[in-house]
Task: structure prediction
Amino acid sequence: MAWFTKTRKPMAPPEKASRVPEGLYVKCPSCTQVIYNKDLAANLGVCPGCAYHFKMTAAERLAMLFDGEYTVHDPGLVSTDPLEFTDTKPYKSRLQSSIASTGGNDAVVTATGLLEGIETVIAALEYSFIGGSMGVVVGEKVTRAIERALGRRAPVVIVSCSGGARMQEGALSLMQMAKTAAALARLDRAGLPFISVLTDPTTGGVTASFAMLGDLNIAEPKALIGFAGPRVIEQTIRQKLPEGFQRSEFLLEHGMIDMVVDRRELKTTIARALRFMGATPAEAAAAAPVAQDAGAAAERT
Ligand SMILES: [Zn+2]
Result:
């Protein structure tokens, strides 16, 4: 969702074909195998036939990474539509329909819990909420999550799945790039690890800010990762792009990311990396879930 190209449709609807539908069976878009939905869920949304990675919701992502219960932060933050923006329809009604369909108030869920016993702050982007785009609320929640990690001396994991900055919030959405990057710089100075997980797709302002700033940048297989889309680049440089351009494996080969990890090994890989970076399992006392945050601005550190 490049905010700088006027020719592109402002917001593509979530790709229904590559999501896990509600029905009993789902067809793999890669190998066309018909998979029983429960089998797919048990396999973490990975096709047992060809290892195609279906999209995951933010809630599924957190459930996959945390050991058990976790505390969700700032669920009440909602965009105020500061520009009173209207494209093909008013931004306010886009927000309302996304809130109704996802059950969340914006495109990220941030939470604290245990990951293989290590207290970790995780932010997971929700693609079905306006393409997982980053506006003021996403920027603020990610920043607060990093600040919480600073306060608790915990590592941060951000799972990106986003079309980029939210054009309906104009320059305000672009400012979130600097804001989240500055918060990560503070985390870095405090010597706390940040692991970025890039999933299909991670593009635009999210790639250009926190998604590429990890101490370790891990991508899921065959994820589309880039800044501008391939069509825009081809038009700009007037050259045909190579096969597999902007896919995880290509980026790994060219040194843009550190690892490509199958989702089924993601949690163990993250835990191993966190331990390598000096994280230690939390005390039993810290494991008790804290009361749900009120989401009040007053609690900002
Ligand atoms: Zn398949």
Notes: Residues 1-10, 291-301 have pLDDT under 50 and may be disordered. The longest strand covers residues 194-202. The longest helix spans residues 170-189. Residues 28, 30-31, 33, 47, 49-50, 52 surround zinc ion (CB under 6 Å).
